[in-house]
Amino acid sequence: MVFIVCVSNIVKGLNKVDLLTSNLFKKENLGIRRNYSTDSSSPSESNELKGQNKLEYLSYYLAGLLEGDGHFNTPKMLKTPSGTARVASIETVFALKDRPSAELLQSLFGGRVYSHSKKNIVRWLVQDKKSVINIINLINGKLRTPKINSLYDMIDFLNAKGANIIKLPLDTSPLNSNSWFSGFIDADGYFAIKGFTLNPKTYLAFGFQISQRATDKSGESLDKVMFKIAEFLSVKLNMREFYEKYRQFVISTSNRESNRILIDYLNTYPLLSSKYLDFRDWETGYYIFINKLHKDPAQYEIIRELKAHMNNGRTSFSWSHHKQITLN
Questions:
Q1: For the chain, what is the mean pLDDT?
Q2: For residue 4, is it within any domain?
Q3: What's the Cα-to-Cα distance from 281 to each of 8, 85, 134, rounded to whole Å?
């Protein structure tokens, strides 16, 4: 079973490897720009959405994020026994380090952000009627999983309170035509660098993994959407089981073709959480690796540093990629 890595800052550890004088990097502004002259498939330098409609990007992204790890909380009754009106709410959970991502969504779509430091998470919770209806209108027709049943329940509840929302069907458009998969990755994706330890004989690989429960709470299988993702990435769809009770679909990339597809997609539809930083560091190391530059001990050390400061190893964060997301 392979568990994969996320979140890093390549600036950390510069005392060990002089990245600033490396032939692969050059300093630009306050960051480090990836600059590869040895491969035509070099990483993207831009944080722009490449002419995309920002509201459309956010709508599909939000649909994917909520389907990956969100909840549509719909009361069974319109009022409490005492006559108080019940409210519907939408929420999703982030790692505590991703509070700025939750606050970005709060600034765009309303709601509140709550920290649960003991659980190392933050919750973005939206429960005022106007904001809930706005989010539903944004994501309606953009969902791909059985979670659409929960959305429909909420639409029924709101319509009973006077809303007039039409239930749109599942989205069947190509995955590479919008940002839905970016939101889904921010919910449950994982970037990993394998090997690159102090022992140069360790097995070396770059991979990505995303997993989802096999069945929705409605009882419907997620096999169709997970198969579509696997097909998009040109990999196999796998299943793993825990204690004979809980099953997950698992998708992993490792070969050059599947990684190229993923890189091209994420350079078109960027992530918004700190996984964006993981992806950038993963991508940087990957191009060093596929160009076989890691055979140089100095470049091997660069990748080792990238890996060491990804995911739980990240202590410094940049949120400049959020600047591309404004509705102004």
A1: 85
A2: no
A3: 6, 49, 35
Residue 107 binned pLDDT confidence (cut-offs 50, 70, 90): very high
Report pLDDT digits (tens) over 48-60. Answer: 676 679 999 999 9
- Given this model, what pLDDT does residue 319 score? 93
Looking at residue 320, the DSSP 8-state letter turns out to be G
Instruction: Convert the pLDDT of each residue in 112-160 to its tens digit.
Output: 999 988 889 999 999 999 999 999 999 999 999 999 999 999 999 999 9
Same domain (yes/no): 136, 230? no
Q: Is residue 168 part of a domain?
A: no
Residues 278 and 249 in one domain: yes
Cα pseudo-dihedral 218, 220, 221, 226, rounded to 10: -80
Is residue 276 included in any domain, yes or no?
Answer: yes
Residue 207 corresponds to which amino acid?
Answer: G
Paired residues of 93 in beta bridges: 123
Same domain, residue pair 148 and 252: no
Question: In Å, how far are 173, 201, 258, 290, 296 from 254, measured between CA atoms?
Answer: 25, 19, 7, 12, 22
Q: What are phi and psi of 147, to 5 degrees?
A: -65, -10
The token pair that represents 44 in the structure block: 């993207």
Whole domain around residue 144: which residue ranges? Answer: 54-160
Residue finishing a domain among 130, 160, 190? 160
Six-digit token string for 110 = 């309303």
